[in-house]
Design a protein that fits this description.
elongated; single chain; alpha+beta; six-stranded mixed barrel
Amino acid sequence: MSWIDLLRMSSSNLKRRKLRTFLTILGVLIGTTSIVVMISLGLGMQQAIYKDVEMSGGLNTINVTGASAGDSMIIYHNGGDSEESDKRITDEALEELKKLEHVTMVIPVYEMPVIMLKGPYEGWAQLIGMPEEGIAAQNLELRPGGTIPKSGSKLELIYGNGIITQFTDRSGNNPYWETGELPDIDLENDSVFLILDQDGYYQAKDSQGMAASQGDVKEGGNQNAVKPVQKYAVRSSGVLKGDPETYTAGYYNVYCNLDTLKQVLKKEFSGRVIPGQPTTKSGKAYREFSYSYAQVKVDDIEAVDSVVSAIRQMGYNTSTNAEYMESMKGQLAIIQAVLGGIGAVSLLVAAIGIANTMMMSIYERTKEIGIIKVLGCSLRNIKQMFLIEAAFIGLIGGVIGSILSYLMSAVINALTGHGAAMGMEGVNISHIPVWLVLAAIGFAMLVGILAGYFPALRAMRLSPLAAIRGE
């Protein structure tokens, strides 16, 4: 019997029992849809992580730290254990790093907490100073009209799209995350007062509060009050894209030009230690300015490990996005396995349905099987006929299930605003690549064939004479 004859007989047998075939295909369809949608959610999470890594400098970026400088919120690790290097990231260290093979750019970074004042509002932020080319290398997406701050006499800031949520009233009450109401501040157009001396600001504030509570404030002022700190009127050079509900890599950050920041800091803290700068045993500041860390860009991802090894031999601590990715891959694999397993349960139930359909088909077609055996049809052809029927059920269910998966994925992404509702704007929560569809269809066919294998063996073992005599 030719393959064309086998296909024709298999398809006609399925058409003869339309309702049973439909219900069996429906089971495969639901199973395929479940497994594809579940795995697509895991792939969407993977896409989000990749985008976050890209916005953090990509896989060819190495973060280099030394002795503490600045109040960085980032924790770096060396070989999995937190260590403190006795070397500082200074201009001299930057020049050493630039000489390393495969290094294309070294970006000094200085971080410090600052206070922002606007009318009745007070806000907190992490100020990140970088050179102009360093800010450009961060791949920050600014709102239309935004520019990168250049070196100059005045500080200009790039605000993260979540900075507006950091403003409260002067008493620290009515934060956005409790009230749901944003302060009446237009960061793109309004100027704000920036305070770099955080300790001095709170000391002056506490001093005024104590004086007021003790009734010491008289005409002519309080002689014991702490001198108010310097306030800098600064304007925005840009705001990151996204609303307060959209999380981005720079959500809580404020960026400025590093050269301008250093000039302002040295002027304000002349004769004093700049906040966060390391000091000698006698409490004096070092002559060289120390940075919080440095970003080292490498020309080839394959060369990252060798550059990391060289930097660690120089006495510095390092961390890379590649290390972060490796740790996340294991977690993602577990998540995808769990999600895929949940979907596979539905396909397992569908496999039981296919096996049941094939067995019922054998009982109903006992005489037919006996007749084609008597006419000379080989046992192999009989097995192939039933396996083709089972494969047809898997194929049809897999194809329709994949189409339905695309529709469900589109609905999920539309409801979440392509990730915006979950803080991942521009990233599909559900991502279905072509390979997943092909794998799902192939898996559905395989399940169908496996489910139809034992019924096919039973059909092969039927005695022709007993089959013809049987009712």
